[in-house]
From TrEMBL:
Keywords: Coiled coil, Hydrolase, Signal
Keyword Iron-sulfur assigned: no
GO molecular function, one term: hydrolase activity, hydrolyzing O-glycosyl compounds
Coiled coil: 770-797
Keyword Nucleotide-binding assigned: no
PANTHER family in the record: DNA-BINDING PROTEIN (PUTATIVE SECRETED PROTEIN)-RELATED, SECRETED PROTEIN
SUPFAM superfamilies, sorted: Galactose-binding domain-like
Protein name (Swiss-Prot/TrEMBL): Glycoside hydrolase
UniProt domain Beta-mannosidase-like galactose-binding: residue ranges: 719-803
Segment forming the signal sequence: 1-18
Pfam families, per database record: Glyco_hydro_106, Glyco_hydro_2_N2
InterPro entries with a match to the protein in the record: Beta-mannosidase-like_N2, Galactose-bd-like_sf, Ulvan_degrading_GH
Amino acid sequence: MRLILSLLLLFISVQLKAQTVSTSRPWTYWWWMGSAVTKNDISAQLEYFNKAGIGGVHIIPIYGAKGYESGYIPFLSPEWIDVMQYTVQEGNRLGMGVDMTTGTGWPFGGPNVPLDRAAKNMKPVNEKLDVTLTEQKVKRAAPGGEGYVLDPFHPSAMTQYLSRFDSAFANARNLPRSMYNDSYEAYGANWTTDFPEQFQKRRRYEIGKQQSLLIDSTNKEDGILVKIDYHQTLAELLRERYALPWTQWSKAHGFLTRYQAHGSPGNLLDLYETADIPETESFGTSRFAIPGLRIDPDYSINQFGTPNPLAMKFASSAANFSGKKLVSSETGTWLANHFKVSLSQIKPQIDELFTAGINHIFYHGATYSPENETYPGWLFYASTNFGKNAHFAEHFPFLNDYVQRTQERLQSSVSDNDILLYFPIHDLWATQAKSPGNVHLLEVHHVDRWLLDLPFGKLAQWLWKEGFTFDYVSDLQLGRLNVDENGNVITGNTSYKTVLIPASTYMPEETLAELKRLSGAGAKIIFDQHTPAKITGFYNHESRQKSFADDISNLLKNKNSKVSGSLTKDLIANGAMQEELAGKGLSFIRKKTGDGKALYFVANLGNTFKEDWIAVSKPALFSKYDPLQGESSLPHRTNKGKTEIFLSLLPGQSCFLQETHTASTVPFRNFKPNELVINGSWELTFLEGRPHIPAAAKLNELKSWTMLPDSAVYFSGKARYKIRFDIPRQLLGSKSVLLDLGDVREVATVTLNGKSIGTAWSIPFQLPLNKVLKSKNNILEIEVTNLSANYMRLRDQQAPEWKKFYDINIVDITYKKFDASKWDPMPSGLLGPVKLIYY
């Protein structure tokens, strides 16, 4: 009894010490190289983050920098716990949150993982199952974190691993908000000590006696069934022995959890849902067709794939299903090569995440760097640099303000999706795996390997393009659904109009039983094209198959269940709404505010829409809120019984559509805008930057300053463009005037006639002008800041000593040795054309 009381008091004490913080601001990964940190520099960098608009940091200890070995602090040592607590304390002072990885580098592992609990690989060899260690060790480990990767399927490996943190945290007074579990990268792991016993218990036959079927490559029916059983057993063990023990331990210690389930050989929906904050990942660039959006030609799609919102929706679906407020993302990884990423490239990637249901951005990221370290400081090998030495550091607050305003609305609303799309993972398990260990790893990188090419993926793509709103649902989650009096399926937090089953071959009998239960209770169920043909499970398959076929037949006799003949028609008949926004080429997410009003976030990530009348499914009036420009009214009309709004949204722009009860007084304009190109002699003056200030120049036409003589080809910094111009009388009387800067490399701050106009940092580079123009002798000044890439071309020729890190050191976007000296110059400055657009 005394022990129980002591544990209870400890639990309450720890909970009181954990943080509660605001999450509307974006957060950032914060790599501690060698954990060679000092309290003074921790404070200085947190103060920079706070001033820039960052809401919190995520500590990830990794390998160190050469020459700083004496400052390394071993992970979880008393000294490390001290600086961690100091960071939390400083975060509290500044109103910032702190998360940390439950380990160093990735995946979980370290010095307290003995060989018997290290990751294992099984290969059938000569009629025997040959089990060996994968020999994988923690990747990018920090001092004190080196060691074997733990066996993710082992009955006690996770518990033993976490015992090290129990000891380290025992006397800690200031604790992080959340623990973090990185993407599953236990390559080749496909077995554990008691796998044969667990397999027989769960699947009711011995895996060792069916190894010939397990390795069969001829697509025999029995071989497929054994492979499915094998994968299902791995998936169950991963959830029960890896994800759940970690999240339960974290909860017992007062921590939230952020979990990147992707990459796992399990059902991502079930794994993501175990965490408080499911986290997806945006790696690389999505190749948006936005005019003027720069894409790094060196990025290898074959090597890394591209981000895809349908993969991101696994995390948001798990959160929506269980009513979790936050869904996060590792954001901005390898958008472009080091020193080449602009704010204008980052915004569309974030907008894609928002439309996929993400609302808690974590930049990837920033590296702790000593304050006295020379430029460019310490850098992580694979990130976009969001740290203090980033070339966009001065203008970073503009992006963060945008993210904060957007996330405030996304986090204070709930999803409003109509369709639950069943994820038939057994059909995936029936195919040949393309990953190490001959198991399916559901990565966010190569979604073509497990998502896009399957009927499920093709159906999800069709729903996305056709404007239907949906979440995914797993076999396990189906068992938690109920049905209300209107036939909606409900999770307790969210309701859906219909359950949609993709064209699939295999289905567990338990899943079919849940569909029968739901249909009998009034839920509307649609099978796309055809019903599943086969039951899963090798055991007693033939007799179970007959019952399965009978149950399918009986299910279809219920009026609530049908095989679709016209999917669009059937979905709408079941209450699903088809949003015209998608048909216009716009990406969107539909949500509801706390008082039940409709809220849409809309992003123009293509080049097919500029402005048009659009019908929205909700019969209501809407206003427009642009996180960059503020709120405005929208023209409305009724057309064929539908309410339509006139929406202007150029490629690269985004906005909210907010339900309102006030009718718009804005008249519809049915005329095209006029344009005036500003030509003449531009004065170009370089203001500040590296390696030194080039000579001033006069330009009769706008062009990259790298084409100028002197050292401008290597210049990284800020320059001012100045021009005088007159305007015609009709422009002066215009009701609306925009300054369009054309192609900007990379950020432009504008002053007109001595008055500040604003800063243009995202596509399209436009700023509104309000009664600042005059008919004669207007003076336009545009300060443009470029990337640091051109300076690094020179730096790597003359002084490449900054590349001094252990492990992988610093590599380029193809993971080859980094050498900027071979780069071509990056276009820089104001490329234009600069023009006035007026109505």
